[in-house]
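job 3f2a | input accepted
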Amino acid sequence: MLSRANGCISLKGFRSQRSAEQRQHWQLIEQALSQYSHQIPTLADLQNDLQLDGKTVEGVLQRAVVEGRVFRLGAKRFVLFQQLSRFAQGVNQVACAKPRFSVVDIKNHLQLGRNSSVELLEYFDHIGFTRRHGQSRAVLDKTLPDRMFHDDIRFGRATPPVGCLVFKTSEVPLRCLVGSTPTSSANIKSYK
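job 3f2a | predicted structure (192 res):
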């Protein structure tokens, strides 16, 4: 019997195993990621901090992305899901005080660097959590991060559509995992 979770198909009950060296590398990377509070680290930052081979760091991070332990933010930044959830809570806090906020507002509140703040907000725009209006943004769905970053969803213990986007084409809704690029934002709705 086959099962599908996180975009992967495997034999039901199969769990791939990491070598002792891979587990050790992941522990180092996870610890390094968790220590970043004022920026979201790039691949180069992690390589420099850990003094590990670039291919090793990238390979471990790619596997962690597939397994749902870390998220790739933009082309070169990585963040733990717990941190991403915390950042989303911070954006919600700013939005409660100031419904239309700027990158600078988020940068100051989260104490992130400007580049990290911009990439974070672009991701949040992409998933429908926030929407950009010129130089400001507004939160569209304050509960979306809670639904998306829930461990049961990330690790395939609960079934989507929670946290999914639904593309409506004529009468048939087509489900698409968050992170895909829609062809038109006019026919997208959050599936709750």
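job 3f2a | The helical segments are 20-35, 43-50, 54-67, 81-97, 103-110, 114-127, 144-148, 151-154.
job 3f2a | closed
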